[in-house]
Amino acid sequence: MTFLSILCALLIEQLKPLRADNMIYAWVKQFAARMEASFNAGQQSHGRLAWLVIMAALMVPTALIYWLCTKLPFAALAWNILVVYLTLGFRHYSHYFTSIQIALSSGDDAAARKLLAEWTKQDTSAMDASEIARVAVEKALVTTHRNVFGVFFWFLMPLGPACAVMYRVAEYLARAWNEPEHMRNEAFGVFAAKAFYYIDFIPAHLTASAFAVVGNFEDAVYAWRNFADRWNDKAVGIILAAGGGAMGLRLGDTSKTAATMSAPDAVTIDGVAEFDPFPGEEAGTRALQSTVGLVWRALLLWMLMLLLLSTAVWLG
């Protein structure tokens, strides 16, 4: 039933993509904002309590409805499909990626910068075509992991629908309580960030492994082992290092120094820590197409593994 639920949800999303600003997501964002406003008194413990309350408020009803649906024919399957459809985001932001690819292919760098700025919420005014492509590839790999492959992993757990909800909400809280300007360096969001790190630890490694298997395996493993630590977020580093190596692309901002990265291969030149460049070619328009191919191959690999697992459970 797990494989069928995911397959049906993916097919439905291809036909009717769920908008990123849909009513359910808007309600969750408002709920998280109200909890932050009510609990945030400057202490890490307050953030932990708010996180636990939100998770209980969303996971318990989801699990209870699933349990009730198991008493009715096909009801549990329908509920699983609905939850997976709501938690997956395979095509939430694909229009940005596709539009950036078209803009770069036509030489319209200005339009590509504008689209990338809307997608990533960062300043892109000084980016050239290569940097635009690189950032778009990085954003696409991380977004696909968090909106698709991470959901797959947690949906396989015993409380499948509830665990899928937990993963997506934990990912959102880690961003909402740490990334905005007014929330940075606040103790309130520390627990949310730590919780998502542990929740995402195994899925991130599985996604990186999938990229290695369906891409250039040797280069992916080499980049994973030697360059993943260059990103502040370890899970992101693993995904981008393996993904870049699998495609033969040079990812990561090589202008960063040891103050913001922790790679073991740093050397000091004139008192400034420099790093060997990430192996591979500079990202370009073709890199965007390579990313699409890598993601689809990884998705097919995940689906094959889910099919084999579901078949083994059914036969057992």
From TrEMBL:
Entry GO CC: plasma membrane
Transmembrane segments: 49-69, 76-94, 151-174, 195-215, 294-315
Molecular function in Gene Ontology: ABC-type vitamin B12 transporter activity; threonine-phosphate decarboxylase activity
Cell compartments where the protein resides: Cell membrane
Associated pathway: Cofactor biosynthesis; adenosylcobalamin biosynthesis
GO biological process: cobalamin biosynthetic process
Alphabetical list of InterPro entries matching this protein: Cobalamin_biosynth_CobD/CbiB (IPR004485)
Keywords: Cell membrane, Cobalamin biosynthesis, Membrane, Transmembrane, Transmembrane helix
Domain of life of the native organism: Bacteria
Bilayer topology term: Multi-pass membrane protein
Summary of the function given for this chain in its UniProt record: Converts cobyric acid to cobinamide by the addition of aminopropanol on the F carboxylic group.
Similarity remark: Belongs to the CobD/CbiB family.
NCBIfam families, A to Z: PRK07630.1 (NF005792)
Protein name in UniProt: Cobalamin biosynthesis protein CobD
Originating organism: Noviherbaspirillum galbum
Gene: cobD
